[in-house]
Amino acid sequence: FKNKFSETLKEFLGKYSLKDIWRKRHPDEKQFTFRQKRPVVESRLDYWFVSLSLEKLVNKCDTLTSTTPDHSAIRLQFNQLNDNFNYHTVNHTGNVIIVYVKINFC
To answer: Taking Cα atoms as reference points, which of 31, 94, 15, 28 lies closest to residue 65?
Structure first.
């Protein structure tokens, strides 16, 4: 299942020219968003995928201190944006939240 998911994700990212912004900005850092004590499991389950046009507007991409015992939040912060920026959120499965961002360049 994991290999099939990885292949599908890579195809999706390639098709829409999306990049894992956190990994691009932290190429050598190990940080996890999910932790389990027994058995020990650490995984990075949460991602921000951004397009090349949006990448230059990203000011900060980081992992926040956990408010729950097993999961940390991630943050994506943009530089100043104008009225040409809008977004909406769609929750597909209860676990996956997709945020669509649209920027109208004049």
So the answer is: 31
* Identity at 79, one-letter amino acid code: N
Structure tokens at 64: 């926040």
Length of the chain: 106
pLDDT in tens, 18-70: 999 999 999 999 888 888 888 999 888 888 888 887 888 888 888 887 777 78
Tokens at residue 68, please? 């729950």
Name the nearest CA neighbour of 46 among 100, 104, 106, 97. Answer: 97
Residue 17 near residue 52 (C-beta atoms within 8 A): yes
For the record, the structure tokens of 21 come out as 């912004």
The two tokens of residue 36 are 């389990």
Chain centre to alpha carbon of residue 60: 12
70-96 residue pLDDT tens:
888 888 888 866 666 655 554 444 455
Query: Residues 20, 49: contact at Cβ < 8 Å?
Result: yes
